[in-house]
Amino acid sequence: MALNSPEVAVNAVTGEVRVRRLIGVFDVGRVMNEKTARNQMVGGMIWGIGYALSEDAVVDTRTGQFVNPDFGEYHVAVHADAPVVECHFIEEIDDSANPVGAKAVGELGISGAGAAVANAIYNACGVRVRDFPVTLDKLLDGLPPV
User: Fold this and answer.
1) Are 139 and 10 in contact (CB under 8 A)?
2) How far apart are CA 51 and CA 2, in angstroms?
3) Residue 57 CB burial class (10 angstroms; 0-12, 13-18, ≥19)
4) Is-catalytic flag, 86?
5) Burial group, residue 116, by CB count within 10 angstroms (0-12, 13-18, 19+)
6) Which ranges of 81-135 would DSSP assign to H, the alpha helix?
7) What pLDDT, in 10s, does the model give residues 92-101?
8) In the chain, which residues have pLDDT < 70?
9) Do residues 117 and 53 touch, judged by C-beta distance below 8 A?
């Protein structure tokens, strides 16, 4: 189980979105290595920010090839995009999972992070975007006039 709670700011004039803070709470059973597990979760949450705000695989419909095949054109979240990220674990030993009581951490950090960012954008400015990434063109038409 994962719970993400972001805080975002949306510029009322330009539509620019900035994630200011992101908190994640994860039920991972017994934590075997807290530092590694925390790094995995924080990385997943930042990946979720990129997924929600900038990652867009564009395919040329005529050729079927990607228009943005490298990281020069396919924009992922970078350090400047990463807000203050908090990660908390619910250490509830799950005896039915395995003898150790641990669960897999894996990609749990990204679970729900993108949707949480989109919901935070809606809470900040009242514009609901249901198609990722949440880009300026999808926000500007719905923003109230200033």
Assistant:
1) yes
2) 17
3) exposed
4) no
5) buried
6) 113-125
7) 887 787 888 7
8) 1
9) yes
Question: Looking up tokens 């949480």, which residue turns up?
Answer: 116
Q: Catalytic residue among 34, 91, 92, 107, which?
A: 107
Q: Are 80 and 54 within 8 A, CB to CB?
A: no
Reference 25, options 76, 85, 99; nearest CA is 85
Are the beta carbons of 28 and 101 closer than 8 angstroms? no
Q: Residue 23 CA to chain centroid, in angstroms?
A: 11
In the 8-state DSSP scheme, what is residue 81? Answer: G
Answer whether 109's CB lies under 8 Å from 44's CB.
yes
pLDDT value of residue 97 = 75
* % the chain with pLDDT above 70: 99
- pTM of this prediction exceeds 0.85: yes
Which residues sit opposite 10 in a β-bridge? 17
- What whole-number distance in Å separates Cα of residue 134 and Cα of residue 19? 12
Separation of alpha carbons 125 and 18, rounded Å: 12
**CA distances to 99, 106, 122 from 128, in Å:** 44, 30, 5
End-to-end CA distance of the chain: 40
